[in-house]
Fold these 4 entries.
Entry 1:
Amino acid sequence: MSTPILSIRDVRRSYGRGQNRFEALKGLDLDIRQGESIAIVGKSGSGKSTLMHILALLDTPSTGVVELQGADTANLRGAALNRTRNKTFGFVFQQFFLTANASVLENVVLPMKIAGIPRSERRRRGLAALEQLDLADKAGNKAVDLSGGQKQRVVIARALVNEPSIIFADEPTGNLDSTTGAAVEDILFGLNRDKGITLIVVTHDEDLAARCDRRILIRDGLLVEDSAKVAA
Amino acid sequence: MKAPDLISSAVANTFRAKTRTLLTILAIFVGAFTLTLTNGLGTGINAYIDDTVTSIGAEDVMTVTKTAETPDDAATGPGGGTEGPAEYNPDTITSTQPGPPGATLIALTPTDIDTLKTIDGVIDAQATKTVTPDYIQAGDGTKYTVSAGGLVTGQTIQLAAGREPADTPADTADGSANEIVLPVSYVEPLGFSDNEAALGQSVSVAVTDAGRTQHVVPATIVGVAEESIAGAAPAIIPSTSLTDLLYDTQNGGLTSSSTGTGAAPDATTGASTDVERYSQASIWFDPNATDEETTALKDDLSAAGYTGSTVADQLGTFTTIINAIVLILNAFAVIALLAASFGIVNTLLMSVQERTREIGLMKAMGMGSGKVFTLFSLEAAFIGFLGSAIGAGIAIITGTLISSALTTTFLADLPGLNLIAFDPASIAIIILAVMAIAFLAGTLPAARAAKADPVESLRYE
């Protein structure tokens, strides 16, 4: 079996200290392989968001090891860590996080701007990503003028534009009606299937979770169910 | 993120909350406007003083008088003396230096001039010959009273037409060195149609000698001088040889009353002792002398019993007052700028607050804290730039308008005074300084933005 793209060992994460100490994650082990689609499910406060943040290297575990493509990420610091996040991950959030008054294209090219890619290439690749999501005609529109579904497609274009190997989607359909939500899901799973992009979805929508290859249930900071292990 | 992208993003972000940015810019505008205007005032007045200094005297020249030996010897006026009446000193003459009317000082003799030449640092010494003409007349026209000024090497006149009088006869057109520069206010009364028409014309200058005999000396007009603040009374400026001639004539008493050129006083008349007394002398020193060297020279002079004063001494107080006033006005402007900088802090703090999620997203996407800090600092500097550039620009326009309005109205008596002048270097310094202040004000919000934790920021609703 090939090296997992993401691997965590006995990860714990606690907040506060003394009396107020709160353990969000109480020791998790997880291997995620390239090209998988994984749903992390659990109730509010179960620790699923914390887990996603740790997997996305936005947060560091209190104890435990996070390995990205077999390399310990504890050694990643500063510029190297930023570069890794920029190149490896794409993010899709429930609240979109688009800059309202900037154009759709400007929003999409933001990760490339951060990476320092030249303007002409940014434009070319940004338009290509929008084309892929049937939004090429909206490139010049202000992000604020789009519908919810269009906004989420812009967010997906932004997540795609740097050709990441992993896309993190935090409640990607939470703010969408079921029809648009289903369309957005189709796009995400299409990317997973056609481009081999690893998809990590955090949700409490069981229907969405059911569409993933693998379902992981988190409860009170512990991994209580992993469909891959059940199958195995 | 590359530097050009950082700058363009910062500029774009500045215009996102237009009203808020505009208000902050206005606050900076007030400070920058005031600072530019007060600075322009200083520049204008000081430039005028500098122009005037060269017309009062050359920078490497010191005016020397003999120091009265004891306070009650000559210098004390009536009632000021503590020991009764001053003792008679045959060398005492009426001073022509600025001071109380009737103040007297000790005359300088040729021996004193030789002594001055031996003092360390003195390059040359020359007696100042004071000429008191009775009148000036063109042809058979009306006679007008006039005073005569001197011109030493290195001193310039603000000329309206023509040139300065020649130093030596060889420099003049016809070999006679009797050239004068006429004050502009004498041009029309003397019957010349304009400044140019007066050039090359002949005038007569009359002086009265010690024997109450009036002598008329012809002179050629070579230049017309502007009036300036320094020349309180309009005075003709004769060439060196004409000054000598007039001086010898007025002190000789026995010189030929003919209109002969270059007539020397008769040395055998015994009047020479009278001639060889001067109220003051000019000494030349190294033009590159530092302030310390100039002070040392003054100390040497006083040790030898003389008082030396430079043009800078004479105008020093004036310049100091102007600089002090400008400094105080600038201080007010800086206070306004400081107040404005709190506006920048406030604006950017609100901006950071509003854009928490955006900052979080950028950090999640791999933007380093340093870049986030730079982005917000650049925004602050850009707001500072806008405020100061607009402020300076409008101040230049306003200042120029005010200045030209004043020049034609109640400052019309001071020709050459441009009350508010702008110097590109100081404008640039003001803009850069305001940008620096804005940048510093931006560091607090920028640091807050840079510190933001992406996870916390993304959770922020």
Note: Chain A has eight helices and ten strands.
Entry 2:
Amino acid sequence: MMALDIIIAMKHELMIGFIIFLLLFWKIRTDEPNPSEVISVVNGLLLATVLLFLFGSKDVVLFNQMFKGNELILFQKSMLSLGMLIVSAISFAWLKNNKNFLEFYILLLSSLLGMFFMISSANMLMFYLGLELSTIPLAAAANFDLQKRKSSEAAMKLILSSAFSSALLLLGISFIYGSTGTLLFSELSVSLVENPLSIFAFILIFAGFAFKISAVPFHLWTADVYEGSPIPVTAFLSVVSKAAVTFVFVSVLFQVFQSLALTWTIAISLMAFLSIVIGNLFAIRQQNIKRFLAFSAIAQVGYILVAMLGFAEVAQSSIFFFLLIYLFSNLAAFGVIGIISEHTGKENIDDYKGFYQTNKFLSWVLAIGLFALAGVPPTAGFFGKFFLLMAGASKGNYILIIIAALNMVISFYYYLRIVKVIFMDSNENPIAKTEAGLIPNLALLLCMAGLIVLSVYGPIYEYIVSIVQPY
Amino acid sequence: MNLLILLIIPFLTAIGILAVNGLKQVRTVAFIGSMIQLCLSFYLLNQYHIVKELGDASIMLFEQNHAWFPSMGIYFHIGVDGISISMIILTALVVVAGVLVSYGMEQLHKEFFFLLILLSLGAYGFFISLDLFTLFFFLEVAVIPKFLLIGIWGSGLKERSAMKLALMLMGGSAMIFIGLIGVYFYSNEVGARTFDMLALAQNGISKEAQLFFFPFAFAGFGVFTALFPFHTWVPDGHSSAPTAASMFLAGISMKLGGYGCLRVATFLMPQAAEYYAPVIVLLATIAIIYGAFATMMQTDLKYINAYSSISHCGFVLLGIGMLTKVSITGAVMQMVSHGLMTALFFAAIGMMYSRTHTRLVAQLGGLLKVMPFISSIFIIAGLCSLGLPGFSGFVSEMTIFVGAWQNPNIWYRLATILSCASIVVTAVYILRAAGSSVMGPIKDDHFLKLEDALWNEKLAAIVLLSGIVVIGVAPFLLTDLLSPGTQIIMEQLLK
């Protein structure tokens, strides 16, 4: 029965692996596969991957404590697959026009596979392997618009900064091993004690994570990479990749570094403060909508960090819930931007003047996505932000909470500025009416439905609360 | 009565608006929906009296409690008392009138009526909430419709005004949020945490926490109700907004703040309310006097009404700050009265503006001769505003002054006297505006060709006017309704 257990525990990985091999064979068999066909098949399989979580999961530990599985991890994997599915659906037009679309899928799916291994890891080395598998294909994907210089620049920046942060992580991991003699999360949570070496190791690991989730002051690569990469890759980076790293970050923080809580409380408070303030202030000044979303994403990370200061359970459930909402809201925004960019090549905020005159549906989708990012009800974004701050306040830290709450007003300003441009500014020749097509529209509707359902329907949050790990 | 229906009807109306096409159908759906809601709110009043006569002494009636996010202590807890019922009726009246005066809205009519109804949904939800989270949720629901209504359909510097309003209200919300967090974490240190207002009032909050968090909550709600110095969004927002949105903003939205100051800040943190009462009274007095004098300097009718709203909402805060039963009753009466009166005022201004295309007092004149109905309601709204007996403005301001005078503190009496004196200033600007804009010679020849109010505009004015007159002639209808609610707040204060 051992093999069956493995299949059940690793169903997501097997499924993604299967898709990757399927695509490889497809590529070998025909020189020019029919894009619509392939994309539909991949989307169908990804949908199946998302639905895998309906089968449930047992708590298992496999491969000499390298790989663990439980219901929370299952949920996280399905969430990431959902992100991948939406990214794939909203970039339908871009993929169809790109003759290398198969490679695009193979790269992003490999990255997704790496994320699955990363969040399932119960061992530092396994975690590191998963992380590398998830980052390196992304750098290649960032360079996907081969003829664009900005795209190469983005890829270069991404690979250099990832390599640097990976090096920091690896150094931190080796110090951890040096001071405790083990790499297993479960043993580390007991044997790691507060001493200078472990604090130093923690700082290195922490900096590595901060790079990956682009928290200030390790955010400098974000805006350039977001701007230069093709929009589907940017969407993937800003949502799926960030969510995956946050999942691991949370579990490492609360499980492995529990004994250093005093140290990381200070570090995280500081980083949360800086991320929120700097993300907000820079977002105000942006003209390019992708750069704008990059800085808004930095500010959102700040709010996630605020929640990490709370008690483990409430912090985790609020962060996971927020990430689910963030997935829908950010992908709704990126979806619209991607569709417009593909059809018209316009990516500046000013180009969106008078957008509502010509594209009512897309305008509303973008506006609702931005409202959700700003945290305004009735979209679910309100609940996400509210719960994050509540979680952060559960251990005190009122000063930071007050700063964060007041900063929401600033963020409100720059999100509303775009809404203003779309709805209120007049324009002689606004962006022409754009037909997104069936599949992208369905994906956008899914995002809208997600944003509404997650707000009025409480049990989803309660489900997340019931599956988080108490550590 | 099942209170959820008060939310379902606007929701269905909004869906219905999306489902139909063309201005005629859209406005008919909106009108029918808001009329049903108005009938329901009077039915609720009736039911309230029936239940009360049967001897039901519970604080809140028709309560419902559904789990929403139970692990966070968030419940969808709704219920009403006399104060909320009066606010619900006010909202229903203003919504009907607002829909009626917007009958000619050609530009993007579907979106317009949809947002209008969404705004009212936020207000209804706010007034029936007994759970702080639910209350905050509905308060915020109303922010985006306001922003879009002003920014898209407004006039003048509409984008700037819309942004200013949205940001200031958001700032207020952020402060309210901080207050809520404090209430939540300091209310019950041992047991389960809750947002339930009744449970919070029972448990009590330590005095230190109250003193720290009360200013946030009160000032946050104060932003909504134009608490000095957070009043600056009022003139810009009101003057740029389209007529119906101005009516909503001044008539309902500013009442959300007053209601919150009373029901959340004062009710849940009574000791802090007592401690900070002098500050509230001071700020309210400044708002009253400053608002009145600032109004004198205005030349635009909408600005006149907007600044006078600051002054009138100052009375609400004065009533709350005085912390006597009579003054608090007066504050709620003033909220209702000001809501109706200012909505009527804005409706009249809107009707005049849509015909003459100017709101400047200097350019208007002699309108009474060409459009007697509109001019009459303009004058009536003005007279109500300056507190003529027989209208609601008189009884509510009188009640506040009587209640304020019960407070023996010499400084409070000085504040009361100063506030009383500001009514003279009110009389000056109202009579001046009314005199030169509707009386006198006709200043522009094209005024002669203008038509008087259409049936929908007449109906809108009559709906609001009947409310004003009923309260003015029979104030006991309102005071009896409010009495149990204010009694509970007083008991909380004296505890």
Note: Chain B is about 75% helix and 5% strand.
Entry 3:
Amino acid sequence: MTKALISLFNVRQRYAGRTVLSVDRLDIAPGSIVGLAGPNGSGKSSLLRLLAFLESPASGTVTFEGVPATASPGPVHRKVTLLVQEPYLLRRSVFGNVAYGLKARGEADPTERVRHALEAVGLDPERFARRQWFELSGGEAQRVALAARLALRPRALLMDEPTASLDANSAALVRKAALSAREKFGTALVIASHDMAWLHAVSDHVLHLEHGCIVDTKTLKQKEE
Amino acid sequence: MDFLLQGFLQGFFLLLSGDPETYSAIWATVAASTMAMIASLTLGIPLGFLLGHKSFRGKKIVRTLVDTLLSFPTVVIGLLVYAFLTHRGPFGGAGLLFTLPAIAIGQTILGLPVIIAMTATAVEALDKRLPMTLITLGANSRQILWATVVEARFSIMLAAVSAYGRIVSEVGISMMVGGNIKWHTRTITTAISLETGKGEFAMGIALGMVLLTVALTVNIMASGLKRKAVK
């Protein structure tokens, strides 16, 4: 059996005393694409932050390759990365943004990887690499942020509503880039989205969340019946 | 009004002919203000960063103190530095009174609150998503600290420009702890004050033009940095 990349064991997350997430067991397999669906406030973003090791759970354990990890900056954050719905771009050029993570890892010349990452999200490196952060539209900024994460070739890429501010063409490009990351680098993807058609098209399987709990598809269908 | 026109013409002549006394005052100003800026930035940026970035007991009191020091009168700074550096004061043995380093010490006290307060405000105003973004891109704690300073760079540069504007135009500190000694500690502002008192307008106007040019440059830089800082 393949060892899980990220696992949650009896995890509960609480904000201001209110339980927002309750997951007994969840395994993300290497190279898998897992979709997260559910209404606003169902716990999708909280789950992504836990999977990205940006928060520690109120109780329970989150492991990376079987080893518990914390939310303090550490080696696990060089293997798992998160793209939020409204990403923050650093106050530098597009090249500087995409190259930042690579330089943080000691990459001396990230030019080629930056080029490939920009091309993967449909941005022409010749036109975009020198643009400043304030010269981009919302959709372009979203794709630059995705390129910055794809360039890292992470073991796990977590995305929160990656197509929310994109047109149909750009959404298709993001899907292609996500699938390419899995094929080329074995990246596991966990994607939260309200766009069910897009989510089903890109994911191996989709987990449904309601009130902070994972409700599997079968149960939902049974409920509908 | 002829004396003013004549003063302007003579002022231009002094600057263009490289008059040694005029350029001695310019040099003294550049030397003292450069020393003061280096000290203010070296101390002020890390202190301002800590004040803006960290939470600690008494932070509000420290912040209020720093904000109060923004309007520290230059003559009071001059008085305090004089008291410490005079032969009866605790640092009298250092022999610094009536030297350019003495002026630089006073000007550092003048510029430091500006750098600390504006750096702290700049760090506090940074987007709350920045630390999370840096962690998700794999930055370690040291890289996060440095990237935070880099993100606030335009506001920190604005702080430096504002502090320089205050330092270069002060007269109280330079007069009290510098002593306005010709060829040694006579700065642009003390020279203007002295020459005007003597009814000699030419050098005052020449040095005034230098000071106005500095002020104009500082303002142009500040307005450009302000635009970049809010983007």
Note: The interface with chain B takes residues 52, 54, 73, 77-78, 81-84, 86-88, 90-92, 100-101, 104-105, 133-134, 148-149, 152 of chain A (CB under 8 Å).
Entry 4:
Amino acid sequence: MSTDDVLRRSVTVRLAPDDAFRLFTAGLAEWWPLDTHSVGRVDALDVVLEPGIGGRLVETLADGSAAVWGVVTQWDAPRRVAFTWHPGTPETEGTLVEVTFRAAGDGTEVELAHSGWARRADGERARGSYGSGWELVLGRFAATAG
Amino acid sequence: MATYHDVLDALGDPTRRAVVERLAAGPASVAEVAAALPVSRPAVSQHLKVLHAAGLVAFEPAGTRHLYRLEATGFEALRGWLDGYWSGVLGAFAAHADRTVRSMDENKADS
């Protein structure tokens, strides 16, 4: 499962890396598809990515409650931001999302990598056993974020 | 044909996740799964039935019992769903970035 350990997606935008990074982080609420990609769905009001290591990625719901999706683990503006990813689940079951910004032509390539099965306590054991590690973590993630 | 909805539903239950955890260690019979969990054999059978319907578990006869093991189909459905999830996020980002660029271009043209 070596190539399946990390799920990668990328997109190129016409913004400079500085602007792309700022839009992705400080401007998160402007573009994140909250109605489909949140804990509260239609009851989700807002989402904020607090800047800097230790900052939270947190959703505010219509009833005033908050749902923490993850915590920033890397903050290297305007090149990279990484955060744990555990919407609706305990942090110990979190996976990791890394977003990298690279200058490409007159724009920026934004690559998102979702990984983290190896961070589990049994990661070493999971590595050699199909279905026990990454796939199961994905299951936990999807079961709550879906 | 299992869909990610089946998979999400199947893995939404903590006991079923525990069953998957047990099978991740290797194929097992209903009795062996039940021995590893605080759940009765009939309950384990029921959970295995749901996991099988979701494409997460397969079984084969071994003497007088069935041996259950993890099956890739359901996990692949889930993987496909996650691909779509992040594509949706990045697609929304790119669409917004496009709008931002266009409005900057228009502002430039106006000034």
Note: The interface with chain B takes residues 4, 7, 9-15, 19-20, 23-24, 27, 30-33, 36-37, 110, 112, 114, 126, 129-133, 135-136, 138-146 of chain A (CB under 8 Å).
